[in-house]
Amino acid sequence: MEMSPRNFSCWAFQAPRPFSSLFMLFLVMYILTVSGNVAILVLVSTSHQLHTPMCFFLSNLSFLEIWYTTAAVPKALAILLGRSQTISFTGRLLQMYLVFSLGCMEYFILAAMAYDRYLAIYYPLHYGAIMSSLLSAQLALGSWVCGFLAIAVPTAFLSGLSFCGPHAINHFFCDIALWIALACTSTQAVEFVAFVIAFVVVLSSCLITLVSYIFIISTILRIPSASGRSKAFSTCSSHLTGVHLV
C-alpha cells in the first residue's frame, strides 16, 4: 500500500548493534571540526589584521562547516550509540535540505574566494577599491541565498512523494538517493531536477574557479623574480587548501 508522508510518524535508521569504537572516533572528529572552525571565527573576529576579504570568506566557510557537520553528525552519533534510531518525516526532510544546501553554499563560497584571489593578483593596484567590504558581503550573501534556493526545488518535489514500507534508511543521514529508492510513485521529475541543480552548481563554481586560476597563473608567470612569483602564489594557499579539502 502506498503511504504519503502524513501516514506515518517516523523513519528508522538501520543499525543492528551499537558501535562504541566508531562512536568515539566520530565524536572526537566532530569535536575537533567544530572547535577548529570556532577558533577560526574567533581569531578572524578579534584580530584587526585578519579583517580582509579572504579571511571574511574563510570565516563564512568555517561558520558553514559548523552547521554542515552538525546537520548530520549528532544524529549519526546517536545511531552508533544505539539510541534514537528513528527520525520524523519533517526531521528527515530538514536534515536532507540542510546538508545539501550547505554543501552548495560551500561550492559558491569557494568560487567567490577564487574570484577574490583573481582580483588581488590580476588587479593588485585596484584590488582594495574593487573588492570592498560591500562586494565581499554581497558575494557571501549571494552564496548563502543561492545555496538555500538551489535545494528548495528538489525538496519540494520530495515532500510530495508517496512511500511504501519498510521505512528503513541504510545510511547515516538522509540522502536524496534514499528518498528516490523508497518512493512508490514516479521519481523522474525529482531525479531530473536534482541532476540539473547538481550539474549547474558544480559546473558553475568549478568554471569560475578554473577561469580565475588560469588568469592567476598566467599573471604570476609574467612576474620576473622567483621570489615575487612565490609570494604572489602564496596568497592563494588558503583558498587552494579549502578547494583540496572539498
TrEMBL record:
GO terms for cellular component: plasma membrane. It is found in: Cell membrane. The keyword Flavoprotein does not apply. GO terms for molecular function: G protein-coupled receptor activity; olfactory receptor activity. Keywords: Cell membrane, G-protein coupled receptor, Glycoprotein, Membrane, Olfaction, Receptor, Sensory transduction, Transducer, Transmembrane, Transmembrane helix. InterPro entries: GPCR_Rhodpsn (IPR000276), GPCR_Rhodpsn_7TM (IPR017452), Olfact_rcpt (IPR000725), Olfactory_GPCR (IPR050516). Residues 36-246 form the G-protein coupled receptors family 1 profile domain. The chain crosses the membrane at residues 21-46, 66-82, 94-115, 135-160, 172-190, 196-221. It is a multi-pass membrane protein. Gene3D superfamilies: Rhodopsin 7-helix transmembrane proteins. The keyword Ribonucleoprotein does not apply. PANTHER family: OLFACTORY RECEPTOR (PTHR26452). Belongs to the G-protein coupled receptor 1 family. This is Olfactory receptor. It comes from Trichechus manatus latirostris (Florida manatee).
